[in-house]
Amino acid sequence: MSLSPERASELKQIIHNHLLKMNIHGRIREVLAETVREDHGPAHRSLSQADFLRALQHRGIIDDVMKDLQFTQEVLTDAEPGSPPKPATHFVDKNITPLKKTNIDPSRRHLYLQVLGGKAFLEHLQEPEPLPGQVCSTFTVYLHFRNQRFRSKPVPCACEPDLREGFLLEIHREGTGEGSKMADGTTMLSLCDPVHLVLIKTDTSSETMLVSSYFLDWRVVLCSPNGKTCFAVELMGVGSECKVPAGVLTVGLELYPPLTDTLSADIISTQQSLERQRTAEKERLFLVYAKQWWREFLQIRPSHQSKMVKIFAQDENGVNRPVCSYVHVLRAGRLLESPRQAARFVSLLAHEKAPVVGGGDKQEQWCTLMAFLCRGKGDCEDHATLLCSLLLGFGLDAYVCVGTKAKGTPHTWVLTCGTDGSITFWESLTAHRYVHRAIDPDAPPLAPQPKPSSPYRTVGCVFNHHTFRANCQPSDAVELCVFDFQNQSRWKAMSQEALKSVCAPGSTTSLPPVPPLCAPSLDPAAASNQLELELRSLVSEHRKDLDLATLWDDQLSYLLSSALSAYELERCSGVSCGNEEFQDAVRRAVPDGHTFKGFPIHFLHRNARRAFATCLRSPFCEEIVCCRGDHVRLAVRVRVFAYPESACAVWLMFAVKYRSVL
Questions:
Q1: What does the H/E/C string look like for 424-467?
Q2: How many percent of the chain have pLDDT more than 70?
Q3: C-alpha Rg value of the chain to the nearest Å
Q4: pTM of the predicted model, to two decimals?
């Protein structure tokens, strides 16, 4: 492998720095002295270079150097296509992000946060050391601070996981540009935004689990000498285990450049105490107001006691917060182009109810946005609040609805009001849209009435980032509801000022910061090719077990692309197009007297074996994969569509053409 002079020089510098760090010169001198002493005797001979290298190898010096020397895996632009880099460990990080070199602006203040290892993750106490080549569960740390997001490299799960990573965070004030002056100690003391750490466990089947969500107050570094400090952080569990320790992380903080005059610890603790008192007072006043508002609501009708009016919800850390604080005006920049594409993105995040130990009712848990995005899945409440936030960002008048579906199952969905008074329901789990037309109960018996189009049965309340309204109509049935929010006799509203005091950004220090969406790190073309190759191999093996030969038709496989593209476009826009061209191309590709069969299917993951096993459960797909006949030619095509947060829509189609034999 040839290296450019610049790369060679950089490589030499890395090795030189590593040898200095190991104090290699001192160790070599010790070995040299020992070897010379051993060889001095009556028949001593001169010490050759080979003898000295053998001595270094015998004492394990060379092994130590090679074991600790690590090179950052960078994505080379001139690498050969189809030759993925070999993983250095026994697990593969499928979302490798190329590392970018950045120049530190000396006029800006930075915080260097280091994770220096984990310990006391007792759930993994009995786990054996993974063997080389063995796939194992991994831990990944995700971090968010003032609109900056990072993730660590995954490491094998263990009682003492080797989580060692450094993150360079820029400390800046809101609304300041590149030319602003450096933040001083007083300015940084007033920045109460915490560093949000989220620990995710990924198992061997790529399923993710939220282990812990922790808010770190970094301002302790302001009173540390030389701007450096190191301490242990106890991570607690989530949901029903929020009072149980999950493990301990050792965290180091370093301020760059350090403060010339460090603050005293008393000043920092006083500031933190004042912030807690101010937050507690605001929350207390809102609770008093909410109780009074609820009493007034119950006095309207006794039946209101049973309505689905949700004022507070518990997050993953067991903290009760007003539901309005879970919704924000969220702009996706260039990552999402339209409200319908936003709905498609949210529907691609998997639906999973909060896990609970034992039977009984489901554990209700509304996740903070950061925890939901890092985990990549959540309950219907998480999906609805994210979709509502994105629709608000696109300028729509959007609300989260709390109510029930068929059989009285609690559910949340999104509602948008048009300027013409039209009402549209958005199902965040599927991206389906339903136009709502209310039934008039006072209309004559023979008057035509609209048929219910949505799966929703009752609605108890609606809310967004600054509004909360409870349904006080005689019936809470969706089909009878009139969504005229200005009519106080139909919808009882909470005071916007009261909501603003605890839900507006920056109103209280207990509100979690809102992270930006991350661009996809997935290469759709490479992922599509990889998955397609794996599926071809699985189909060939399956047919071989049935004593059937497998012949692939590459041209037919290519023709399937247009159909898969049309399917995804229809899911995004609701408009079907391109089907005529696909049908015409297939007719041309299939000779007279031959039969064509195709089976498209959609997945949210990229696991070839899971996908193939699911496909074989369909008799239509099994008929294609196990096809017998004359001139049998098989085809398979995969299209992976990448969305923000590494969410992906995976479409694949199996097809076969064969000569019909009577």
A1: EEECCCCCCEEEECCCCCCCCCCCCCCCCCCCEEEEEEEECCCC
A2: 82
A3: 31
A4: 0.81
